Amino acid sequence: MEIQINGLTELPDVANKLLAFAGGERIFLFDGEMGAGKTTFIKTFCKVLGVEDSVSSPTYSIVNEYVGENDTVYHFDFYRIKNIQEAYDLGYEEYFYGGGICLIEWPERIEELLPEHYIKVEISILSESGRSFKLTKN
Fold first, then answer.
1. How far is residue 38's CA from residue 77's CA, in Å, rounded to a whole number?
2. What's the whole-number mean pLDDT along residues 8-24?
């Protein structure tokens, strides 16, 4: 599924479509170049999931935990990990296989640890405010 938007006001619609597309899948990978809007979209997606806390990038902490309406939501940013051992030390298995919803930025940094099934969200820059969202199931 591919969705194009022309501004931030359209993000809630994309988030709702992603949730419907997921069909109960709990692992979401976010792919896109720096500045594409991964974290901005994740903030909106968290609102759709019922998160009331302030959502921010876990760039330095690697993972942030939020309480959603029905689930715990884990937001990962693997951009700054130096090696795969850091993901092991974090206890990634408990997060990825523990039943919560996992939102993963920079998943290519831990590719060999990713679960077999997930939803991939590829965000591409079309213009200053335009973005394309490509949703695929694996």
1. 10
2. 95
